[in-house]
Structures are given as C-alpha cells and as structure tokens.
Predict the 3D structure of the following.
Amino acid sequence: MKKVVIRTDASIEIGSGHVMRCLTIAHQLKKHDIDVCFMMREVPGNLIDYVVTQGFSNITSLESADLYIIDHYGIDEVWEKKLQAYTNKIMVIDDLANRPHNCDLLLDQNVVPQFETRYEGLVPVHCVQLLGPSYLIMRDEFIKSRQNMPDRTGKVKNLLIFMGGTDPTDETLKILSALQETTMNLETIHIVVGNGNVHKEHIQAICAERGFYYHCQIDYMAELMLQVDFCIGAGGSTTWERCYVGLPSSSTIVADNQRIATEYAARLGAVWNIGWHENITVATYIELLNKLSEDTSFLKQMSDKGLQLTASKGQPNPWLYEILEMIK
C-alpha cells in the first residue's frame, strides 16, 4: 500500500483552512487505498483531534513515505530538501509564490494577476505546476452541490455568515452587532464558526437569543450554501467554494496572504471586496446589509462569474489524478 504524509498546521493565528483542504485531499486518496497520515504541531487552535475523528493519525517525527504533501507558509526548499531522505516525491500547496520550493508537484488554486507564471524560478524545471481555480480542492459535497444549484435571482432573503474557522479578527461579532441595527428583512440567518473560534459559546448564545441558526465545525457547508442567497465571508479558500456553487458573497480580508487574490477576484466581478479588516467596523457591515436590501441585480452577475472562473478542466479535482500518477 502506498503511503502519503501531509505536513500542515492549524492554529488560532493561521486559521483552519490549510488543514481543511488537506483533509479533502486525504479523503480522496483514501478512496484509492492509499494510507494517509498527518504531521501537525500541538499549538493553540490545532485540529489534531478533529483530523483523528476523520480517520487519520497524526505523527510527530519524519517517516518514510511515497509522497509528502506540504501545505505550510513557514516551509520552503530548506526543509523540503531534508525530506529527500524520507520520500521519493514532494508536493507543495501554496498561495503566495514568495519563496523557493524543492518539489515535484505544486498546486496553487488561486486567481491572481499572471498566475500562470508566478512560480517561474521558484520551483525546479521538472516540477509539474497546477495553477488557477480549475484545480480547486473541492470536497465531494461541493461537487454534488454544483450539479444541483438553485436559480440565483439576486434577491437576498436568506443569509450565511462564515468568517473562517477561527475568525481571529472577530468579524462575526461585528456582523452580529450590525444585524441588530439593519432594517433588512431576512427570513433565515445562518452563523457558522469553527472549533478554534474562542468566542463560539458567546456567539451560540446570541444566536439562540435571536433565533439565528448556529453551526460549529460542520461538514455540510455546501448544503448551507445552496439554502442561502448571499454570504458574508472572509478571503481565502472559502472564497472559491462560494464561487464554485454560484453563491454571491462579500469578502473581508483578514490576513495579508488573502489580499492579492481577494482584490483580483473582486476586479473580475466574482466577489464583493469590502476591504482590510482593521478598516471594517460595525457601521461597514450595516452599510453592506442595507445595500443588499436595494438593487441587487449585480449579484446575479457575480454568481455567473464565480461559476465561470471555477469551471474544472475535465473531471472535478483534476489534481487527484496528477497525484496518483506521480506515486503509482
């Protein structure tokens, strides 16, 4: 049996996105009878226990494997070269293109200016590069949901709020305050948080008091996205999940590594960029909500653009076949 080790981390500071997309890869590989384990640090906000509940063990030291997959902004070619004593192949998942890598396969699913050439000089000549949203890392639930999408009219009656697994800048609480002051008439409001959100109990209490639907560390996000008309979200990989199911959304930039992709996605018309989190106040979210009560014809166009950008080349998750070919 082939063996794959995934080196990644989750924490309060860096969020849960790296681990969650690696779990998608792990589940797909497991379907092909590949033994997958994770290598994560025990830091505040880690998701080690959650990964174990998903059926994958966590190792604490390097082991021999057919492939190492690295999804970590703190790792570059120095550590990757050390891996050569333990593996034949290395895959890197990156978003930044700001450091050299020693790898055989690189995946960057983001749309940014000149995304097709941004890793020139940063990876070996033999490295296979999978670049852009046609290589999105999508869970099965999203692939299925894309085939059963509702007709997006642009009218907003049902709202989803998800500001990332940890929401380190406390955007959810800002939005909950804004919802008290808006005149917007909404039928349902869904609030999603991750286990790493330090305010999750407080948020749950607010939801119970106001009749909002509260969800914590869920595995049915795509289903929720089909039930709502708009999402107030953060930048990062969930931006492309929303686009993938045609859900118009706003993005608050909550980390530096989200800035370029969010700004470019907004320029293309796929998302509503409301700016850097330090400049976003409760009043900003009130203004956003009130605008959603007015002319929303542009939301239909946003939905269509998101679907267009995230169309796969051939089968969904084409990166999977590249991995399987590499370790066969």
